[in-house]
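Input chain follows. Return structure tokens only.
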Amino acid sequence: MSLRKLLLPLLIAAASTTHAAKTDLVLGMQLEPPNLDPTGGAAAAIDEVVYANIFEGLTRFASDGSVQPALAKSWEISDDGLTYTFTLNTGVKFHDGSDFDAQDVKFSLDRARAETSTNAQKQLFAGIENVEVSDAETVVITLAAPNGALLFNLAWGDAIMLSPDSFDKAKTDPVGTGPFTFSKWVQGDRIEIARNPDYWGEAAKLEKATFKFISEPTAAFAALMAGDVDAFPVFPAPENLPQFEADPRFQVVVGSTEGETILSTNNKQPPFDNKLVRQALAHAIDRKAIVDGAMFGYGTPIGTHFAPHHPAYVDLTGNSAYDPEKAKALLKEAGFEEGFTTTLKLPPPSYARRGGEIIAAQLREVGITTEISNLEWAQWLEQVFRGKDYGLTIVSHTEPMDIGIYAKADYYFQYDNPDLQSLMSDLESITDPAMRTQSLQKAQQIISDDYVNGYLFQLAKTGVANADIVGLWENSPTQANDLTAVYWK
């Protein structure tokens, strides 16, 4: 046998071994989650780590935004739309080895909808009248009224399943049913997860993954270029994307998100309790300048709180077109010819910090002075989201199809409109797609005409990854870094 014939199998084997050895992934995130319990916190960074990886719900969002079975393998809906009977997957275990069954579903949903619940999206469960266990594999949810969005609601990260034996550890030591188990959290640096060897479904291809927290855009760029980070699904410096596009080591993935980026306005704080002032605010904003200046052209201007890629979207940008002279006239009509001063509290993301500087300059042109405060996320959640102590702020609302928040009078922008609340309440019982679209479009028009917030742009998903990585989401139907189907070529 020739030397060539002897060496060739060895070389092929060595190459295969080298290729197969790449089963770990380091993924960059700009923000560190405040905790790891998606049922007890509003921060999107929580779901970015745990959604579909560690925790699962009865249903889940796929990468295209569709709702798919998860812990529930099937369901039946009664003719009157009031009863949903879910059949659960069998052989499912929590990461601590305990069995998952219908009792855990009842515990999780009863906990989420309880009066004492701290769930940030408690309204998702408001229509549930009863959760009943038929047997270990069957759970029946009874509604007070038909809800065409129930399966959608149950796919949110806020609706994941927890065990009564470990729910109280979820913030720092999460125990789920997902394809990855929690390994380690080094505060301020990284979170590590590992493949679950006992996963009930299709096993993850990665053996382990690390979420590395890098807040500074320049550091994120350096980490990718050096290979210290394999992927940055939401890359914080869009100005660097052309450089990555020109480098064959990388792939640049630009998709859409559910992130309506808004100039959130405290509707109960004077002078923003005056609709004329809110309208002036809307006409003082040049959305294109914000998208170009803060996002380097990545983003779609919006005129209401709804994603442009959704079939029910109505383009209402003309309702708040950039017109500084009209803004000045409206302020004069409202009694603020000399302008006024307010606060502009900005969370860490670059869209907020960069956008805030641009918006402050635009508002200054019509006589509105802003006192800018740069806050960390914990401060923002405490002062703005929970404390409602602000005039203006900028934030991307990344939850899927979340226009329902405008029906919550105690929500942080404090908009109280009984007509909209009635409309959204009626929407819950509508199952006909055409009628649901009609109601959603009416809701978009109402909040646009009321100038509840300054609607800026739909956040684009600008990701950078090693060219050999397969399976990362292009779009973000929910805020998640789903690693369940990710692998190296």
